[in-house]
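User: Hey, quick favor. My workstation is busy. Could you predict this chain's structure for me?
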Amino acid sequence: MHRLFKTVFVATLLASAPFASAAAEPFTASVAVRVADLDLDREQEVRVLLRRIERAADIVCGETVARRYHSTWSIYETCRRATIASTVGQIDSRQLRELHARRFGTLSVEAANH
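Assistant: No problem, here it is.
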């Protein structure tokens, strides 16, 4: 597989974040994830990419805040799962989609993109 993606942006709309004011406009957070250094035909490197996507989702979905304010944990988890699924769906890699399905169970990439 050639390396079509140099960088993938993991982004999410933080409209329902617990720290967002009712009057505030929703905002999008994003984190760049390196892909160009990986060969997505190799399973080990696909695992590396999924870990990078997971770490980026932790950042954009507010893992640090959720760990401190436990009442926000379910919002963080929902955001994280949807963000990871959406990002995986943007990358043309069957192995990545299969690894994501094995790791996260029944949450499908297609469902997260709708």
